[in-house]
Amino acid sequence: MTKIDVFSKDLPALSTPLVLAVAKEGKELQVPTFPALRDFARAAGVTGKLGEVNRVPSPHDFSAAFVVFVGVGSPKNTAETLQNFREAAGNVTRSVSSEELAFSFPTKNREEVLATVEGALLGAYRFGKYQSKPTKTLKTLCIPAHDALSDTERAQLQTTVKAVTRVRDLVNTSPSELYPESMAKAFQKASKNLPVSFEKWNYRDLKDQGFGGLVAVGKGSKRKPCLVKLTYAPEGAKAHIALVGKGITFDSGGYSLKPSTSMVTMKSDMTGAATMGAVCLAAAEMGLPVKVTAWLCLAENLVSGNASRVDDVITMKSGKTVEITNTDAEGRLVLADGLTMAVAQHPDLVIDMATLTGAQRVAFGTRIAGVMGCQKDWIRDASVAVGEPAWTAPLPEYLLEHLHSDVADIANSSSKREAGMLVAGIFLKQFVGDTPWAHIDIAGPGFNTGSAWGYTPKGGTGYGVRTLLRVIAEMGR
Ligand code: BES
Ligand code: MN
Ligand code: ZN
Known about the structure:
The protein is 33% helix and 21% strand. The chain is α/β, with parallel strands linked by helices.
């Protein structure tokens, strides 16, 4: 974990590699603190554009080993400033492999300081588990003494970053190592030192107690499904939120087998569950005054003589029967059982998160999630505020016709391709009843198959963690 330190010397006297934020304002370069640096920066080709990172030898009168000019663009409002600082800081720590960096950003308030540090810490992430020579990363981040963090600020930030890191690590782990049982174990272990209780339904329990969705999806694998419940219930909690996560540790599609190119990255199909688990632990570590129940719906969707068939009819935990018309629409089956359990406790709010549909990715791309359900506007606002923008989508009732089944109460997939993200949401809605609910489809932003950018690495992104922590914090106010 990166340490956060302060420097009190003047910038030219620092020996730590120096990061200077440069803004692009009209045609003028804005180099903070030392206007004389402007010519130096211009000569180095610095333009101040967001995304730009220029590493150059120190000017003569500076003692740092090298200087990094990082562009912060020309933000037009408060929200943009926060996000640009976050991304710019991440651009540096992601691309410069130095164990120590001193940051000088033109921060004007606490929020801007926190955004900068958050971006720097998130960008310093490396996944070295399978590399014989893991790359170096930031060990100490130095910020100006006048920006120094309070103990609470530091603790909150470190906890948030730890949660994002936990999700990224789990997502990036080889699916040969990460399967329902091992993922459950990881959360059991992590919950031990926190006021979080851990409960688990094994395959036997799931069969005995009628979890038809989890059983149908997970039974084809030798590594059987399980359901994990994490509970953080602080005394005097102001509200209760239930978090339900899709935890498919590998999605082959089952008998509705995915084409080989679509199967690549399907180790990431457990991102929703990893996020919900990590957020529950982080809420406990922060001591937020809200009860959090996380339901991790864990299964591996494989093919075998014991796997579900297309045409099978199953009975869900709620009692509803479902005709499986596509074994690759498995996420909604495991989530439905989790949602049934979640709403039975009558929480104030249920949120589910899932890498649910390719349609989400097609509609909103790889940086924006889709948020649906009756609480969608609130979640969108929170997501935009933390720089993890989700966009809302409707769940019109007439789409339920697409899930008509001749033999069961409902089918799990539609024969039509239209509105795939919404149809999946409509399916889930059948299992939430009257409880306030939001569904977040993160098929796009959960896993980065493109280039790294800002503080977002390739692979697992940890998208959504900070949105949910903000929602929980708001519920505790
Ligand atoms: N896990 C996939 C969705 C997905 C696709 C996530 C691409 C991330 C990237 C999900 O289980 C799935 O296969 N959905 C199907 C649903 C269809 C069969 C109704 C899809 O989107 O094609
Ligand atoms: Mn699938
Ligand atoms: Zn899936």
